[in-house]
Amino acid sequence: METVQAIKQRFEIIGNDPKLNRAIEKAIQVAPTDISVMVTGESGVGKENIPRIIHSLSHRKHGKYIAVNCGAIPEGTIDSELFGHEKGAFTGATSTREGYFEVADGGTIFLDEVGELPLTTQVRLLRVLENGEFIKVGSSQVQKTNVRIVAATNVNLFNAIEKGKFREDLYYRLTTVEITLPPLRERNEDIHLLFRKFVADFAHKYKMPPLKLDDDAVQLLQKFRWNGNIRQLRNVAEQISVLETNRDITLATLKSYLPTEGTNLPSVISDKKKDDFSTERDILYKVLFDMKSDLNDLKKLTLELMKNGSSKVQDINPNLIQKIYGSQENDSEIDFEEEPRTAVMTPTTREDNYRIQDDNNYLDAETIEEEEILRLEQKEIEMIKKSLEKNKGKRKAAADELGISERTLYRKIKQFDL
Ligand SMILES: Nc1ncnc2c1ncn2[C@@H]1O[C@H](COP(=O)(O)OP(=O)(O)OP(=O)(O)O)[C@@H](O)[C@H]1O
Fold this sequence. Notes:
The structure is a single chain. The chain has 3 domains: about 5-180, Rossmann fold (3-Layer(aba) Sandwich); about 185-260, Helicase, Ruva Protein, domain 3 (Orthogonal Bundle), CATH 1.10.8.60; about 280-415, no CATH class. α13 packs antiparallel against α14 and α13 (about 280-310) crosses α17. It starts with a helix and ends with a helix. The chain has 19 helices and 9 strands. It is of the alpha/beta class. The strands form 3 sheets. A 5-stranded parallel β-sheet has the order 2-3-6-1-7, with helices on one face. The protein has a two-stranded antiparallel sheet with strand order 4-5. Adenosine-5'-triphosphate binds near residues 13, 41, 43 and 154. Keywords: ATP-binding, Nucleotide-binding, Transcription, Transcription regulation. It holds the Pfam family Sigma54_activat.
């Protein structure tokens, strides 16, 4: 049996904390069995290392390993992603597709954020766990698969069970053994080790000399709460590595990269005087944020128009129409037949587009647009951070405030590594 030390080397896991070692030891012990494992721990503590260890030490190691982030897949497509679909099962299902459970037959599937699975998908999952059976979306034929599932969550699933959002029977089916990873603030000795590793990596990546913390800075590093755990530590290490020209980092310098007291967000974006959206700047950000979202919806709509060539907008995607135009009574009468259709569809416009592309002005316009997008993206990040800060990290409340779905917020947190 491989030792904990050897596994840490193989998977580049930094740290000597006893709780971390125990978690790795447990993973080594359960790997040769098919026991179901639930990995728990806050976001950013390195939960994904555990299923990778389990898979590579199991008899399934030559089979496939698929990691699925259940929170990042839209509800409407998750069943098809996991279990596949038949041709014609829904609009756009132009061919039969294998799902992860079919592809990973003989291997391992890691279901991250398992608490985000819709209840209907939970029923299907329970069936696979119980007898290896599943049915593709749009099919009536039962198929068999032999997949080991390792699940993970960073929320307390008992709360979800109490609220009726997670099936209790599924919870127990997924959790024969629980492996918990400690938050970074409980791994005091490891914080500086990890930081040193990250700054060495970034020095290499950005071809700069590595930076060094003085003693006071090391103390602050170890005292800090690191609510975003290793992910947050790595972000801070990257920011300092790139932005600081002086490679000797003092307490004051480090402090300027850490969230101010009582928050867990970088001080550069925190506004101590106001904690709501009442300032002019914030209102502007909110408007920009909404505008970007509208713009994306309009882009989608245009694309669908181009693809479908439909004359009536409402034929295309009623949800999108509803989102863009609201629910006025005359929604169903929106008809672009007279004007925009020709604007989007006719060959003349296409040729125009090509012609513009040859023109230098087009390049300028593109550059400007890219800059705008970057600026908007920065504002979006600030808005999200601010809302999360205001709502004490509660995603549901932040999503409500921002007017986006929790799932979208989740994706954005991942996308921007917040
Ligand atoms: N012990 C470690 N040594 C070095 N890097 C690590 C270690 N643990 C985690 N990391 C890095 O920290 C980041 C966060 O890890 P990971 O994505 O596994 O966290 P997580 O707990 O699954 O978070 P979430 O619940 O948000 O998905 C990753 O980039 C990972 O490579």
